[in-house]
Amino acid sequence: MRSSLLKVLGALLICSGSAVAQTTITVDLNNTSANPTISKYIYSHFAEHLGRGIYDGFYVGDTSKIPNTNGVRNDVVAALRKMKIPSLRWPGGCFADTYHWRDGIGPKDKRPAIVNKWWGGVVEDNSFGTHDFLNMCELLGAEPYVSGNVGSGTVQELADWIQYTGSDNKNPMSDLRKANGRDKPWSVKFWGVGNEAWGCGGNMTPEYYANEFRKYATFMGSSEGKTKLFRVASGASDDDYNWTETLMKNIPHHLIEGVAVHHYAVIGWEKKGPATGFTEEQYFTTMQRALQMDTLVTRHARIMDKYDPKKQIALVVDEWGGWYDVEPGTNPGFLYQQNTMRDAMIAGTTLNIFNNHADRVRMANLAQCINVLQAVILTNKQKMILTPTYYVMEMYNVHQDATLLPTKVSETDYAFGNEKLPAVSASASKDKAGVVHISLTNIDPSKKQKITLKLNGQNFKGVSGRILTSAKTGDCNTFNAPDKIKAVAFNGAVLKGNTLEVTLPAISVAVLTLN
Ligand code: AHR
Question: How close is the Cα of 93 to the center of ligand 1, in Å?
Answer without folding.
Answer: 5
